[in-house]
């Protein structure tokens, strides 16, 4: 009987404890790529990508499927095999400073790694973090941009694009639980 009571209590209490922990929920994410070709700026965007930001450690992971948003289409690239082209952006945010700084506008330079086709390239992102409080649905809006070298990612050349391209990542972070 004691065993049954312990099992029932663990089924009821453990999930309650998990829901009580603070977590960050991400909404309204957007990823943009900007490149210049023959003096004209071209842009590709997606709102369909995964973002995680750990409340306790500040670990940040974003995974973007570049197939439909890359500047140079698949049909133009000289690839011998079809591969899904994912960007993973990883690193750490100073999460405690960001979440508990009461200033409405914060600026950070954060080095994140871009991982693509087995290669890792560091990139310095300039982030502006806006703190929206008092709205009944408090959140932080993150908007970061970095300049990267297209030649790091495409072996065949830049196909007329300037080698330096800009990427932008934005999302809203809500604290839930606790």
What does this structure look like?
The chain is mainly β. The protein has one domain: Lipocalin, CATH 2.40.128. It is 14% helix and 51% strand. It has helices at 2-20, 95-100; strands spanning 23-37, 40-46, 50-53, 59-65, 86-92, 105-116, 119-132, 139-149, 164-176. It has a 9-stranded antiparallel β-sheet with strand order 2-1-9-8-7-6-5-4-3. It is elongated, with a radius of gyration of 20 Å. Residues 2-18 have low confidence and may be disordered.
Q: Identify low-pLDDT runs.
A: 2-18
How many discrete structural domains? 1
* Major β-sheet profile: 9 strands, antiparallel
Strand order of the largest sheet: 2-1-9-8-7-6-5-4-3
Q: If you consult CATH, what is the topology?
A: Lipocalin
CATH architectural group: Beta Barrel
Annotated CATH homologous superfamily: Lipid/polyisoprenoid-binding, YceI-like
* Approximate helicity band: 10-25%
| Cα-to-Cα separation, first versus last residue | 33 Å
Return the string of H and E elements: HEEEEEHEEEE
Q: Please report the number of helical segments.
A: 2
Q: How many strand units? A: 9
Structural class: mainly beta
From the spread of the alpha carbons, the general shape counts as elongated
Strand percentage lies at over 45%
**Can you identify the CATH class?**
Mainly Beta
Rg measurement, Å: 20 Å
């Amino acid at each position: 009987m004691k065993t049954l009571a312990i099992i029932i209590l663990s089924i009821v209490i453990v999930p309650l404890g998990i829901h009580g922990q603070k977590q960050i929920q991400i909404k309204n994410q957007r990823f943009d790529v900007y490149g210049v070709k023959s003096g004209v700026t071209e842009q590709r965007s997606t709102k369909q990508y995964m973002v995680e930001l750990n409340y306790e450690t500040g670990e940040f992971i974003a995974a973007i499927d570049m197939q439909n948003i890359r500047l140079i289409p698949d049909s133009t690239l000289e690839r011998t095999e079809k591969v899904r082209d994912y960007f993973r952006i990883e690193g750490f945010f100073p999460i405690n400073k960001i979440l508990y700084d009461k200033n409405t506008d914060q600026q950070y330079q954060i080095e994140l790694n871009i991982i693509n086709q087995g290669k890792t390239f560091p990139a310095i992102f300039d982030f502006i973090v806006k703190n929206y409080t008092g709205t009944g649905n408090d959140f932080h809006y993150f908007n970061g941009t970095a300049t990267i070298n297209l030649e790091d990612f495409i072996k065949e050349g830049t196909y007329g694009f300037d080698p330096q391209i800009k990427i932008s990542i934005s999302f809203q972070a809500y604290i839930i639980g606790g």
